[in-house]
Specification:
With about 325 residues, this protein is mainly β. The protein contains three helices and 19 strands. The relative contact order is 0.15.
Amino acid sequence: TKDGELIPTASGIRSPGGIGLNHLGEVFYADNQGPWNGSSSLKPLSHGSFQGHPGGFRWYDTAAAKASMGKRPTEPKTNSRWVAERPKIPELVPSAIVFPHGILGNSTAGFAYDSNGKFGAFKNQLLVCDQTFSVVNRAFLEKVNGVYQGAAFSFLKGFGSGNIAAHMQPNGTLFVGGTDRGWGARGGRRFALDRVTWTGKVPFEIHEMRAKPDGFELTFTHEIDAITAADLTSYSMSAYTYIYRADYGSPVVDKTTPKIVGAELKGPKTVRVTVDKLIQGHVHELRAKGGRSAKGLPILHPVGYYTLNEIPPGDLN
């Protein structure tokens, strides 16, 4: 506070690489793979929440924590799954976005967003740094049943060092600062400050990936080719999760291959992809490599990684 009082707010954070606000003023932070974190992630941060790592439980014994956060949450069971522990621990907040380790990055860090569209087509989506891969990924978020979840996509690469911090100027200029000091990065330089501006051209991308009761709805940045959009062979999917455990990180586990059973145009830029089975708590990796724009362009980044914390209610397609 302005008077210097420290108020405990949340527990369970492991190794945060960045913290900031979304366009609604809600707090999110990026956590890294390690104990109780199978892969790096982006998580909402709210008063009284438990973010998953029980190492901070001892602080609940302090008077300040008791007054601010209430009772200590139930201890999570190691070698479990997030989806299994959530009903047992009401305070437990699942990751809104899981960034698959070794695919989108290894060390999630700072993030920013474009508030006015001057950086291109992805207004209000979070642009999330990864230190190890020296990249910026893109995160589309939505709320389902009151819980944040969404899709991650590859976005920008070619940065000079390990991306740590991101800042978006009002004029649409993105600044990214990085280092590989103490932790390796692909960029190659010890330190870097990179500036990114929009060329004015909109790439053909998956703009949004929204969960539906029986699949996902994809909205694109350009009008889509009707033939490839409706062709089931344009798409493939896998689904997997990570062990929720006290040990460091996790391999991919419980992997399945949902079958694409439908693809229906819902508008000039929108297609509804139906699968035979969604799996709550899994990352659903949707590959749309066969899709083309109405002008024949391939999708620049054709893979979306959707963290399905909740399956939406409603009618099946």
